[in-house]
Write a structure and sequence with these properties.
2 copies of one chain form a homodimer. Chain A is α/β, with parallel strands linked by helices and 328 residues long. Helices cover 40% and strands 23% of the residues of chain A.
């Protein structure tokens, strides 16, 4: 295997998050399902925005958050995504480059994607995403040579909502597998699993080596109701499953081995946006830097704890400092 | 005196803050004076931005922060400012309206103003402002009837950096004084005092009833070196001076009476952006709601403590809840 240029190359949506605190009643009133992501048109997004309180804007996007987290941990990642030719595109590009990520993104003709994220007092986030320029990403945006030079290619489940992007993902998987590299997939959202189960199952069977999801997403995907049966499915599909369990921590299993970690302590959960993304960042940093499963889980738990302690899905402090502090 | 429509009407810059954590060495390297605001061109702003780390975007602007704070306290304020016809203008307009402010702003032809705010580990902020559409505000944007219907007209010292705005301020002062209303001025920044001392002195002598500034700004304006001499100047100019002293709290004096308050406790000072603005919000809320000087100072201290406990210059929680909690 030739030298790797990147620890992890991520493919995902380039989104600027619009974060606003709200009450549960507002979610009900707007017909939102708490803790999930709904796609919306530009008009729907405007309507929701007009109903929300004062907000802050922060770069986001599931895979982009993960990749930013890996850079913050001291890794060498790259990100492929598409922004619009506008101020929010400038913000996204600046923020991901500023943290040390090689941003291989293109510029589309539609506006930069936004996600209006409503944060309830319990710290849960409910997202409304206008995909904009993200829908313009396709196979031409995938540089096969760079994929082949990456230890892991990390794909966001959300990409299945964009037909052109799927073709790009297939090209990326082919390049990765052809070079003997690993493919990781994040399930992103329970509704993504429901919408695209058959295609995701086929992708996992054929190409995926590492699968990230929370308990709900993993159980929905495998259509199981308990952990033991899920382990059986992992064994059958020959995939390493990293399952987050919120306050109960995380567990990783491949059918042979199981390892788990408690959630790292957090004084107050401010905003869970990015919790799963940053867990994946920590795990993948460990995985690509020779750490064992248990230590990779620990790094994931530390990264997730940092991001839920404040508003926004990107680390507020350099995560490598936290690793040093924890002796990892 | 006729009924008031607004407690406070603010006139100031409509700015979106771009907040980024940095080290002191970066400030030195970029030739910035810590704790102050420097004006910059669009090109200079771009150059500084390219040197800064990952950022978050939050609505800001000195007087706008104060007015948002008064709304958050339960007051009835309005704000006059000018945004660009762009996404950041939408954000600014949304955020100030969402908190309950009557935004009487216009839309200019230049981009919405931005301030790149570098926050050092001690929580101090150093600002680099591109004024954009703010420079297009002038007398036509000032609605004299609404000024006359406001208990207090609150002016930002920063407006002196914009020639057209000064003419607008003069019109506003005339309308306020003609209706027997009060005029308040924030000195905004020590360099503002140095740049425009003569004009500010004349304004204070003729029109200002309440003056806000930190110790450095007030002492520079009066060209004094100690508190007692400053009190003498307040007496001579017949102005109520509200002077913030950072961690030492705040003091208010008019030459006859002096009252002071300790700083409200803060677990960790994250970002001092907006400390003075929110102190002014609390004080003016108290002042326009019949509280005495001491209780007005207390409300100011509580509002300032909230805003320095997190990134960004707008309250993260409804300030009226904090008032209730403190029995004010």
């Amino acid at each position: 295997m030739s030298d790797t240029r990147y620890d992890v190359i991520g493919i995902g949506s380039a989104i600027v998050d619009i974060l606003s605190r709200t009450d549960d009643a507002v979610l009900t009133d707007l017909g939102m399902v708490k803790g999930t992501m709904a796609l919306c048109t530009a008009e729907q997004s405007d309507r929701i925005y007009s109903r929300t309180g004062s907000a802050i804007e922060v770069s986001g996007g599931g895979a982009a958050n993960t990749i930013a987290g890996i850079a913050s941990l001291g890794g060498t990642p790259a990100f492929i995504g598409k922004v619009g030719k506008d101020k929010l595109g400038d913000f996204f590009t600046h923020d991901i480059r500023a943290v040390g990520v090689d941003f291989l993104g293109g510029v589309g003709t539609l506006p930069t994607a936004t996600s209006i994220i409503l944060v309830t007092p319990d710290g849960q986030r409910t997202m409304n995403t206008y995909l904009g320029a993200c829908t313009e990403m396709g196979p031409d945006d995938i540089d096969a040579a760079r994929i082949a030079a990456s230890h892991v290619t990390y794909i966001e489940g959300y990409q299945w909502d964009t037909p052109q992007a799927k073709a790009g993902i297939r090209k990326a998987c082919q390049a990765a597998k052809g070079a003997g590299r690993k493919v990781a997939l994040s399930l992103s959202d329970p509704f993504v699993v429901d919408r695209h189960r058959a295609e995701l199952e086929a992708l996992i069977k054929d190409d995926v080596d590492i699968l990230f999801g929370n308990e709900d997403e993993i159980f929905r995907l495998f259509q199981v109701g308990d952990f033991e049966t899920a382990v059986g499915f992992a064994r059958a599909t020959n995939v390493l499953v990293c399952m987050t369990r919120g306050a109960k921590g995380a567990v990783v299993f491949d059918g042979q081995t199981t390892a788990s970690v408690d959630a790292a302590p957090v004084a107050k959960v401010e905003d869970t946006t990015g919790a799963g993304d940053l867990f994946a960042a920590g795990f993948l940093y460990g995985y690509t830097h020779g750490r064992d499963l248990t230590n990779s889980l620990r790094i994931g738990a530390i990264a997730a704890a940092e991001v839920i302690s404040h508003m926004g899905a990107r680390p507020a402090v350099p995560l490598r400092d936290l690793l040093v502090k924890h002796g990892l």
